């Protein structure tokens, strides 16, 4: 478990993303440019979920003020990563190869609706994410029958993969383990979890406070946003992938939410 890793005597501190560290310190690294181009299909969170995430981010900042927070308009869940860390011309070549099927792929959730529920913070030594579980008939909205939950987010990812492979491209994704999460914060300094006198040695008290804070947020999420028998799920507590925005086919230097849209799919 990640908690055990953080609390271990062998814990050497949070993992700093060296590229993001340079991007957020332009005065120190004024000539630095992130050259890693990617091609992905992103699911964009609806407004109620974005509001929930903004509140959670605010609460995280209260205990770890130096966290880098994913900007609200950049929030995304990677439904499928085609490739990463290529040059812009290489990405454009892959886009051209897939172009005829990109409309079908980005519109796919319109007719294949996967529902995610039970938002919960997850974390590792590099980042904090909001994770979800596939729904299994719990408190469905009025226009979504319990039986419709048989088609899950994992089925959606499988279908997107197969559609993409049908174009002849190789899917070279970093994501192997099935997951439904949005990264909402990253560590760009060790100062929030280290001793004040050297800024590198982990401070067990600070680390414990951070983990306790995350646990408290998760308790509140479960109490307020998880399904309850006979009640509708509170807005923000469930996500029908494709609601308000269809899949976003995105290319460019997008590791931290940037890049440009190739095509935005049909929403519902």
What is the secondary structure topology, with strand pairs?
Layout: H1 2-7, H2 18-23, E1 37-43, H3 47-63, E2 68-69, E3 77-86, H4 88-98, H5 102-111, E4 115-123, E5 127-134, H6 153-165, E6 181-186, H7 204-225, E7 238-240, E8 248-252, E9 260-264
Antiparallel strand pairs: 1-3, 1-8, 2-6, 4-5, 4-7, 5-6, 8-9
What would you say this structure looks like, in words?
There is one protein chain. By secondary structure, the protein is α+β, with helices and mostly antiparallel strands. The protein is globular, with a radius of gyration of 19 Å. Helix 5 packs antiparallel against helix 6 (153-165). It contains seven helices and nine strands, in the order ααβαββααββαβαβββ. The chain has a five-stranded antiparallel sheet with strand order 2-6-5-4-7.
Treating each run of at least 4 consecutive H or I residues as one helix, how many helices?
7
Strand order of the largest sheet: 2-6-5-4-7
Low-pLDDT windows of residues: none
Shape: globular
Main features:
9 strands, 7 helices, 5-stranded antiparallel sheet, 268 residues, alpha+beta, 4-stranded antiparallel sheet
Give a concise summary.
With 268 residues, this protein is an alpha+beta fold. 32% of the residues lie in helices and 21% in strands. Strand 8 (248-252) and strand 9 form a beta hairpin.
């Amino acid at each position: 478990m990640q908690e055990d890793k953080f609390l271990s005597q062998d814990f050497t501190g949070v993992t700093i993303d060296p590229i993001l560290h340079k991007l957020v310190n332009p005065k120190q690294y004024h000539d630095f440019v992130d050259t890693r181009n990617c091609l992905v299909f992103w699911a964009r969170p609806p407004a109620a979920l974005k509001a929930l995430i903004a509140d959670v981010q605010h609460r995280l900042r209260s205990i770890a003020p130096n966290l880098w927070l994913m900007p609200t308009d950049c929030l995304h869940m990677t439904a499928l990563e085609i490739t990463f860390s290529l040059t812009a011309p290489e990405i454009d070549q892959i886009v051209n190869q897939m172009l005829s099927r990109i409309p079908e792929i980005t519109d796919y959730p319109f007719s294949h609706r996967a529902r995610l529920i039970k938002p919960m913070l997850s974390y590792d030594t590099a980042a904090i994410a909001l994770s979800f579980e596939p729904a299994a008939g719990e408190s469905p909205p009025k226009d979504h029958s319990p039986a419709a939950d048989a088609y899950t987010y994992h089925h959606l990812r499988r279908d997107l993969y197969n559609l993409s492979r049908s174009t002849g491209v190789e899917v070279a994704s970093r994501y192997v383990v099935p997951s439904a999460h949005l990264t909402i914060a990253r560590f760009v300094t060790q100062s929030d979890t280290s001793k004040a006198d050297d800024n590198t040695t982990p401070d067990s008290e600070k680390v414990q406070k951070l983990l306790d804070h995350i646990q408290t947020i998760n308790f509140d999420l479960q109490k307020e946003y998880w399904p309850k028998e006979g009640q509708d799920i509170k807005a923000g507590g469930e996500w029908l992938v494709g609601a308000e925005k269809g899949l976003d086919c995105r290319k460019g230097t997008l590791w931290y939410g940037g890049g440009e849209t190739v095509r935005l799919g049909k929403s519902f």
